[in-house]
Amino acid sequence: MRFDTTQLAGLPTPSYVYDKTLLAETLAAIKSQTRDNADYHVHYAIKANDNPDILATIAREGFGADCVSGGEIRAALDAGFAASDIAFAGVGKADWEIRLALDAGIGMFNVESREELEVISHLAAEAQTEARVSLRINPDVEASTHAHITTGRAENKFGIAYEEMIPTIRLASQLPNITCVGLHFHIGSQLLDMSDFEALCHRINELQELMDEQGISLGNINVGGGLGVDYTEPDGHPIADFAAYFATFRDHLLLRPGQQLHFELGRAIVAQMGSLLTRVLYVKHTSAKDFVILDAGMTELIRPALYGALHKIENISAAERNDAVPSHSYDVVGPICESSDVFARDYALPRTERGDLFLLRSAGAYGQTMASTYNHRPLPQVFML
Prior knowledge:
Largest sheet: 8 strands, mixed
Number of helices: 12
Shape: elongated
Helix content: 25-40%
Radius of gyration: 22 Å
Distance between the termini: 12 Å
């Protein structure tokens, strides 16, 4: 943690606090791993965190944007991302969103189905423009992650079955106002085992060989994102392992001459820069266990309630009291009227008191952007430090 605890003590809770310096260092780390590959293009996945200051910073550094809604396309354009560097993904694009993307002249649509391809063709013809599309192929690759955030298996709702790839490419070539420019893949999120990405590379190599046999050549391969971060020890690993990630694709993916490789990283860019600042409302003692009740809950950070995610929890007030030894076991919970409003069970913390300040670490991705006003609660405030 690189925040000044005195500075944090003056902030309202619950609120998100973001480390601008760490964001800059993370972007620099990505650029250092890709600067020697002019055909590598990194798009930031806006769904991870759509804070305008964060978006503007990433745009200024020359990254593209990966959007999954019309609202995200507007946010990307407002933040300064070039329309030509925007990829529009999403399994259910509404007509108005497609029209918005066409009017903006985005770089490509990541198309999820034959049905969507036909709709985009129709709307592009209405607008008298051309739609550049990449076909999202479901590679049926098993990913080592939570079932709720895997996306590349046959039973997932995403993408076109890889057995249907060639017929769908043929269809795209026949539809008016459609230019098929590439293939898109994404197998899941919070992946730390590089063998998952190796498996994706091998499947793409197989599909490219199949295209070669059919005389098909496409200029872009988009491998999505999915690189994970260390939620257990964020200070030990504040920057994701970009060296291993990009090396995996360099070593295992066989690009054709002139092909451009696209990445869509989100969590790996912003997760570690953000923490949720919250205050202890009560320490509740029962015969069964002790509870720390915070003023932040699943309305501010839903990941633990949604799919059992665990964030490192720090009592920074106890550290200020020179009492940093985890000596008590608590269930750390929020104030929301739901039994699932739990951040951690039987979590070891120093002795905790009412009014103590806590940080829930690695909350820069899928924290603020998924916050809600359930129980008629205000959205958390945000501070860039």
